[in-house]
Amino acid sequence: MQGKPILGSDFFARVDQLVDRLLETTSSLLTLFDAKRQAIRISHVSQIERLSQIEAVLAEQLQKLWERREELVAEAQNRGFRANNLTAILVAARPAQMADLLGKLAKLRTQTGEVQHASWVQWILTNRCAQVYTEFLDRLANGGGSRPTYEDISPVSEVGGALLNASA
Predict the structure, then answer these.
(1) Higher pLDDT pick, 89 / 166
(2) Which residues contact 148 (CB under 8 A, 6 or more apart)?
(3) Residue 23: its pLDDT value, please?
(4) 69 CA to centre of own chain
(5) DSSP assigned state of 84
(6) SS3 letters for 24-87?
(7) Residue 32: inside a domain
(8) Residue 27 in domain
(9) What is the count of structural domains for the chain?
(10) pLDDT of 9-29, one tens digit each?
(11) Is 120 among the domain residues?
(12) Which of 28, 29, 133, 160 might form a disulfide with 166, Cβ 3.0–4.6 angstroms?
């Protein structure tokens, strides 16, 4: 008969360390997104570039931490736990520091949701800015008018479709 799977206290210490680093990184990203949103709002290009470089470093750190999380989950699975996330592993293992770790994981879930939301807001904002600048440049290039491609003409030949030339 196989007993309950066991994970040592070192495993939970590594989980605790990982969660702390994830919390730090997501908190840094939230701060950065706020600063970047302000820089975009006032069109401070050099600050946007500097913040984008920092964002790339934080995103790389986050990716490495995610990979470390995957390694810890795989380690627990190899030891007999049938869970695919750290919360489920903690609930199944019931370590002494479970309440503290579960609280940190809950906070991490909240922060991760905030990072996702902030990154979507930033993506939408930058895409809207790009659309406005593109339209501005189009109008500038065409003397204040619309591009000729905006005229009411059919892009398809009257005798055939775009892929088939029926007149040939």
Answers:
(1) 89
(2) 142
(3) 97
(4) 16
(5) S
(6) HHHHHHHHHHHHHHHHHHCCCHHHHHHHHHHHHHHHHHHHHHHHHHHHHHHHHHHCCCCCCCHH
(7) yes
(8) yes
(9) 1
(10) 899 999 999 999 999 999 999
(11) no
(12) 160
